Amino acid sequence: MANNTLTPTRADGVRTNALRSGTLPGYAKWACLAGSLAASALVFAVAGWNWPLFGVLGALLYLGSWTIVNAAVRGGRHGSNVFWATLVWIAFFLALVPLVSIIWTVLSNGTRGILEFGFFGSDMAGVTGVQDQAAAAGESGVLGGIKHALIGSLLITLVATLISVPIGLLTSIWLVEYARGGLLARVITFLVDVMTGIPSIVAGLFAAGVLMAHFEFVGGGYSGGNQIMGFTAAVALSVLMIPVVVRSTEEMLRVVPNELREASYALGVRKWRTILRVVIPTAISGIASGVTLAIARVAGETAPILLTAGMAVTTNWNVFKGWMMTLPVFIYQQLMRPTAPSAPDPSTQRAWGAALVLIIIVMLLNLIARFIAAAFAPKQPGR
Amino acid sequence: MAQTTTPPPSLLGAGDARGRFGDSFFRVLTLAAGVLIFVILALVSLYLILESLPAIGASPEELSAGVPFWQYVLPLALGTLMASAIAILLSTPVSIAVALFISHYAPARVSKTVGYVIDILAAIPSVVFGAWGMTTLGPALVPVYEWLSRASAGVPGLSLVFGTPSTTGRTLLTAGIVLAIMILPIITSQCREIFIQTPRLHEEAALALGSTKWDMIKATVFPFARNGIVSAVMLGLGRALGETMAVTLVLAPGALTANLIGVGNKTIPAEIALNYPEAFGLRQSELIAAGLILFVITLAVNMVARWIVSRYAEFSGAN
What we know:
The complex is a heterodimer of chains A (383) and B (319). Chain A has helices at 3-6, 27-47, 51-74, 76-115, 129-136, 147-178, 183-196, 200-218, 230-254, 258-266, 271-299, 303-308, 327-336, 345-375. Chain A has 383 residues and is an all-alpha fold. Chain A folds into two domains: 22-114, no CATH class; 147-375, MetI-like fold, CATH 1.10.3720.10. In chain A, helix 6 packs parallel to helix 9 (230-254). Chain A is flat and about 75 Å long. Chain A starts with a helix and ends in an 8-residue tail after the last helix. By secondary structure, chain B is an all-alpha fold. Chain B has eleven helices and no strands. In chain B, helix 3 (108-123) packs across helix 6. Chain B starts with 16 loop residues before the first helix and ends in a 6-residue tail after the last helix. At the A-B interface, helix 4, helix 6, helix 7, helix 8 and helix 9 of A face helix 1, helix 2, helix 3, helix 4 and helix 6 of B.
């Protein structure tokens, strides 16, 4: 390129480092960016303001101009380098847009919902279209709350955890400590992978169907022969949760150093006691954090619960009998089937309030998982 | 995995019956848990097949749609595939770029935070994505769809895809965009894991030969990560195919159409979620059969992903 004309010469006649010839000054990038944004702003000041289009045009102008400047001054190779680097940055900001938009939507719509009196303390019993129409007309506050959904979510997730953690934990112990890469181990590892890919709605179909078949063959039992209950939902969630628990626990058990096991064997300790007293305590922080993440994942599941636990309007403490509401299904129901179809606003407000609560719960679980993993991690073995 | 060693029997003493019982008991217990997973999966498949048979074999008049089962399920399957294809096409380039941003472009101090931010996106429940797509994204896209429809009018092919726009924005393209956002963190985190494992020496060798950063990435990172990217995309595809709630909330269901921005199209999971709670008898069997088709499709996608990974594993620089 035109190196000679660009070789910078200071005012006092001393030539600067020849190695820096053909480079651009540090401010060139920012000047280019500012120029692009200004040009874009000018266009939309004339054509009518539009934030998204302003951003798109500004980004495209910057991408084009900064690439051309680099290609002209430093050569085509640098031009394409800068082009892709800019695209990567743009992609990053593009990925942030929906995240910011979702969090903003939930926060701005949800705060009004959760601040409503009795939002946490009441369920939807007695809240009908009449009440909602009155609320929409401004004659009363928005009645009803998420008490039943909170309790349902809590109970169903708890039962699902009680089912899947022992199964998942024991399976991963077998895979890591007993199976030495045999055929059965490979088959089970493969099946766990397959299970990870089961669509959540299929898990719901399965749980509903199995318990329905159970009642057909074994008879009514405690729930009166109706498979729609909290326990069915917990079974469906377990199908989704077990592979996650197996995967994370397996990973954690595999990083427990073998020296620890061998030291234990050398002291004459039985294998099962070694596993329970040495291996698991060493890996417990990772296991606990994996389990917490699995809980966070299933706590937000909607589809399987919709098929298995139905939709209730009142609080139900009994997992083995009667329909149950959970937070995600509550959101779905309030949005898709507003309590008062002609005045959906109170329902929408409740839905966003519930969405805010759900997001806070899931985020808290994620934070707890990170905290457990960081705080109770075993000291690095001195290898 | 490193081999564990069992304690030599001579050290254990002869009268240690309780300990020996504990050992075999624990071994059988853990094995039983593993076998239980096998049983659960066998039950899932068996149940889905058995319950589907009545619908698959039924005559058209008995079914809810009044057409043979395959004619009922084919539009659903095509709708599912179309939504997932849109999601993959939109999400893959952005995900790879964001993963590159985290692994190679972002300043070291920022990249960890960016990783957390992407993880937050992964933690948002799907029903919230659906609610957002239904109430915020859909209406916001209506003017875009109107413009797309005007701009592509008369252009052969394009005018078919961008036909009469919907007035609510609750279309297949919106559903595809929401799915793309949902699978972005999955593909990104998988790609990031692989990108940061690129051998440092390869990268430095490329830079020492005078490569620009992009040349270096093309020469070292992408060849190293190729099969990892494919498996990450397949994972994302599996998730998009089975995603229910986001599509159920976003898409206003209708007949199969190539028009992505108009009223129409259904997906299998959304069809099940919308109709199963009220279904009984043969209708229930119909929906379960649709679920079986979905299960088979996702299974096939996951297996192909695994096969691709195992095929390339020998050539990758990882070993």
